[in-house]
Amino acid sequence: MFALCEELFRSDYCEEAFIASDWAYQVRNNYSEYDFFTFERWIENYVNNWAKCDTLCNHAVGSFIEKFPAYIANLKIWTASDNRWVRRASAVTLILPARKGNFLNDVFEISDSLLTDKDDLVQKGYGWMLKEASKSHQQEIFEYIMKNKKNMPRTALRYAIEKFPKDLRDKAMEK
Fold first, then answer.
1. pLDDT tier at 30 (50, 70, 90 boundaries)?
2. Fold (topology level) of 2-173
3. What pLDDT sits at residue 143?
């Protein structure tokens, strides 16, 4: 299956990348630890826009991380990549696990590493991750934002607080 996915990614058509990402997710019950390096190679070589990044990482790579959480350490290494899509992938991979309330400390560590990233698509990625984590950990995420809002780009801040109650959003946006 992964060989077929590779061919689809190689085509560079978004539609084919979406099919490949779906197929990679559909075989999640059969993932082995070695699959991480396939995902990593796909991100490095074939992901060239936010849609491909998010489609692959939210489901396939995120499911892999839930099955093999030790590989979160690799996501943290990704935060230092020169490749914007690899940096974004480090955050958006945890979107669905974070929504479930999982990996909160790792969410904070990845956010710390990406905190001052200059790329708006990376900022949106980690802001989105914080927003999803806030669904289960609103107080902790709010405290993190308040502690870091002076250094956090407004793009990331706005994404992170988007679903907060108005009073908390207003407080987070104060100078």
1. very high
2. Leucine-rich Repeat Variant (1.25.10)
3. 98
